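It is time I had a proper look at our fold encoding. Can you supply me with one protein entry, sequence and fold together? It will help me judge whether the discrete encoding reads sensibly. Leave the record below and I will have a look:
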Amino acid sequence: MRKIIHVDMDAFYASVEQRDDPALRGRPVVVAWKGARSVVCAASYEARTFGIRSAMPAVRAERLCPEAVFVPPDFTRYRAVSQQVREIFARHTPLIEPLSLDEAYLDVTDHLAALGSATAVAECIRAQIRDELNLTASAGVAPNKFLAKIASDVNKPDGLCVVKPRDVDCFLLPLPVARLPGVGKVTGDKLAALGVTSVAELRGLERAALEARFGRWGGRLHDLALGIDDHPVRNDRQRRSISAEDTFADDLPADALAPHIRRMADKTWAAAAKRDLRGRTVVLKLKTADFRIISRHVTPPQPPISFEQFTALAIGLLSRVEHPPGQRYRLVGVGLDGVESGDSGVASSQADLFLAGGDRS
């Protein structure tokens, strides 16, 4: 039985800003560039009371809270603080799997001698973050990764939630299916059409029925409903994809996107070449004027070996997107997935380098 901790820093970017500038404490702080095309990277808890959330357009955040203080993001500083947090983690276990600058999984199964329990380790980590960094973190403790991640959100901010093996059903079954990892709006709507809105209702469906409806993902849903997650904490996560994206100054029609796709392809290809990386799958990402994200990908028989070939594949993906009359786009991104070292041919493990959606904690 594993003992997993998921640690999630509370409103990380905004909290760092409030810590470092006393004038911001207690005020609604929005980490974002002001402007029509900017989106919120993070919002302090004071700002969240006005309905402001990460990934929200900055102009909407300003309308919701005109007195909010907008602070431009300083990712160099956030990365430095994140490293300090990870140094605290490393005092307790070498098995650390960072998910982003502000959250990570820790496997403490074999590293309890000093403190005696995973709960005690989580409490100690949170205390060290508070005392040494003057920041707060929330944590979830559970027998596996997905339960620990859900638990870390239960008592935010500055909270701890422990799910013991005997309590898994009591914790899991009442939850809405949207709390399960990977269940977004589309999957949620499909499950609702089957009469499933809670994990308890999902558990009532046979694996075969879920696999018939959702393919391999249906089997994963069945396991999650049972509280099963055998994925280990990996401390060797590496880049699996590399990409570049850009938000336009003005929304553009589909027939104006090709030069921008080429420009993003140039950045991606150059970044891959600099790291001696190759990718098998070409990815095109679009965001519509109403913030709907569309992605298309293609995996040719052989990985693209030239910039021109890569760009042609990316531009070609435009034809696989339906463009309703009047549809305009605010963002384009181009990526290489399935990235591997150019000389070793060994595939990297996991991670997505499309621009992070911001501080979600």
Remarks:
- Confidence is low (pLDDT under 50) at residues 343-358.
- The chain is about 35% helix and 20% strand.
- Residues 258-274 form the longest helix (17 residues).
